[in-house]
Write a structure and sequence with these properties.
A 7-stranded mixed sheet has the order 3-2-1-4-5-7-6, with helices on both faces. It has 229 residues and is α/β, with parallel strands linked by helices. It has a single domain, classed as Vaccinia Virus protein VP39 (Rossmann fold, 3-Layer(aba) Sandwich).
Amino acid sequence: MKMHKNIKKLLKEGIIPSTLPKPNGETINEFIEKDLKWWKEVGSETDTPELRRPLYKLFLDRFNEHTSKDYGSFDREEFKVAEISGGPFGGILDLFFEKVRSRTQIDLLANNFQELKYKTNYQYEWFTCPAERILKDDNTYDFLIGFNSLDHGWDIKAAISECIRVSKTGLINFDVNRHYVKGYPDRSHYQLVEKEDIIQYLNKKHEVRKHWISNIRGKLDRLEFYWEK
């Protein structure tokens, strides 16, 4: 598989490790190939924007509830918005952010995802890079969102910092303490994301206005947080 220039750059700079931390232990090429294979063989049938719509809506509704804000306020004609690690389709931006000026999908596999030709309603910038180092300037986006994916990489704290750096406001959720759940590690969950450790980390980020825990299907804790500069 031909490696994208951004991935080559970050490997050379040591931002992307030559071998991902255990329990993964794969090279970045192996990691990308495995994830792309899953999307081609399984994800394209089981994980689509419409199937995800109820989950997206619950996430956005929880944001409204916990912050007394309205996610619709970010769907503005002058806004540049981005989704981090959203997979090969428009996803949450496609379904809930229709008026915005521009939409960007930031993903380690963005250039590969274009090959899958998911149908979306809007034009996107597909930008290839990991969440751990987003090759964009500070405050590039008016709003950034991430749904249940930031823990799929290898350095959750670096990813959080980068998402905050490149955006003026944002909303993200991801699983915590998943390594205590039967079946770990699975295809996309390798990181040891300790709930209390991450909460302490967020508490040190002055941009983070609110964070809360949602319990998913009575099994998983999902940490959700909102920032604003």
